[in-house]
Amino acid sequence: MSAALAFDLLIIAALVWSAARALTVADLFRGVVLFIVFGLLMALAWARLGAPDIALAEAAIGAGLTGALLLDAVGHLRAKREPEA
Fold this sequence. Notes:
The chain has 85 residues and is mainly alpha-helical. It has helices spanning 3-24, 28-48, 52-81.
């Protein structure tokens, strides 16, 4: 097995694992972090497929902007759950 094939299989396994964990984890913060990890791995997969423009867009929008917005939403949800003193 070549090193490139082994690396591609590792990326596939990491993508499937992070997607499954992001959907099944109970904690919202961990789910968002796993979503960001999935986006970064997806960007790496696009780069390996020879599409650097799509990889850059995935990293910037999929992992960066969307991840930041979701983390902000989780922060607002946690602030509303805490009893006001």
